[in-house]
Specification:
globular, alpha+beta, 394 residues
Length: 394
């Protein structure tokens, strides 16, 4: 047993914080226990360098493992903890530490208003071969996401001073991204700017996914899907710029945001199904991992737990602390399904069972304290508490 998030049982067994964000989402659905995330947030805070950056994993003596993007992830996990629990006290006690971390980044804003890579540190982003030198689009989008989360948490805790600071930085950064990293005439999202300030023509799912999640270019959501995601969905990701299993979590979150839920399930069946076809009983760190050189049991790759719960079971969190959910199972993917999602209030149970060739019976059971918005074909019942049963066409 482990009392902290670690990458896997082999190799470092380290609490890498980029890994931990995805692992936190997984374990929330399995046990609803937010204590490992809160403990890890505090532990990460205890190990940082004087400029505010946190180490990539803790506890550690690996002074080469300072990752600015993992510091941004650390900021984001404050939001994740609040969203899971509805509890703002953790951030309330850490907001000065979050400000210290975020105050590192303005010193590396270049002349175009974009965040540039500090070569003293390791910028990970993903194992894929995506632009990192200069002003990486993905790095800037992650920074914007962290600023927005910090802004919103500051507002919720009544910290108007920090809220204003983060909002001003976010506005300036978003304007710079639109101006220098998005080519409106060609509908291209550049990979970044190189060290001479020239656009990098590389285009990746990575940046498009975060742009979708940030709703940065809302009119381009369908364009992004067709341009950036189709190749990824067409077959096994052998190309070096395809997302790793880790980053597929963000890609799937983006696909769900644009209504491509069935595509997510199809991708899971292809790529995680390939793991099963090769006889794996655990999820691998990289596609086609080689035993002995790459982890075959890597916790960050288990995120289909989240996406299948959202899509096949239809259970989606819709408010902090799980006080409200959306219930909208994607019908027709399977003939029958039953399952549960752990929540702070207890457990949500659901099932879909066929009644005949054309209809199914759908049931939902909710613990006290949760309201469900029901979205089922032919049913107009909303704001359900306690649960219910419905008959619908397949």
């Amino acid at each position: 047993r482990q009392d902290a998030y670690v990458d896997g049982p082999w190799r470092e067994q380290a609490q890498w914080w980029g890994d931990a964000r995805v692992q936190g989402a997984n374990t929330f659905y399995l046990s609803a226990d937010a204590r490992p995330l809160a403990r890890g947030i505090r532990q990460i805070d205890h190990q940082r360098v004087p400029n505010g950056l946190t180490y990539g994993h803790v506890p550690t003596m690996a002074h080469n493992c300072i990752l600015p993007d993992f510091t941004l992830t650390w900021v984001m996990t404050h939001w994740d903890y609040y969203w899971q629990t509805g509890d703002l006290t953790l951030f309330g006690g850490m907001r000065d530490r979050v400000r210290l971390a975020l105050d590192y980044f303005p010193d590396f804003i270049g002349s175009q208003g974009l965040l540039t890579y500090d070569k003293r540190y390791w910028l990970f982003l993903d194992w894929a071969d995506i632009p990192k030198a200069g002003a990486s689009t993905l790095y800037n989008l992650f920074y914007l996401m962290a600023l927005r989360y910090a802004r919103d948490l500051s507002r919720l805790t009544g910290d108007a001073g920090n809220e204003t600071v983060y909002q001003e930085r976010a506005i300036a950064l978003e304007a710079a991204i639109r101006s220098h990293l998005w080519d409106a005439s060609r509908l291209r999202l550049f990979g970044g700017l190189d060290e001479s300030g020239q656009p990098i023509e590389s285009e990746t799912v990575h940046a498009a996914a975060i742009a979708i999640l940030l709703d940065l270019l809302p009119d381009q959501r369908e364009h992004f899907f067709k341009k950036y995601f189709q190749d990824m969905l067409a077959g096994m990701p052998r190309h070096n710029v395809h997302p790793s299993p880790f980053y597929m979590h963000y890609a799937f979150e983006a696909l769900k945001a644009v209504g491509k839920r069935r595509d997510v399930v199809g991708a899971i069946c292809k790529w995680w199904g390939d793991m099963l076809d090769r006889g794996l009983t655990t999820t691998e760190e990289m596609w086609y991992a080689d035993a002995g050189s790459t982890s075959l049991c890597h916790a960050w790759s288990a995120h289909p737990i989240v996406h299948l719960s959202n899509i096949v079971m239809g259970i989606e969190q819709a408010a902090p602390g799980w006080t409200r959910i959306r219930f909208r199972p994607e019908l027709g993917l399977v003939e029958s399904v039953s399952g549960s999602v752990a929540v702070p209030q207890g457990r949500i149970d659901m099932s879909i069972q066929p009644l005949d060739e054309k209809t199914s019976r759908i049931s939902l059971t909710l613990p006290p304290g949760i309201t469900a918005d029901i979205e089922l074909p032919g049913n107009s019942e909303y704001d359900v508490t306690g649960g219910g049963e419905w008959t619908t066409r397949r």
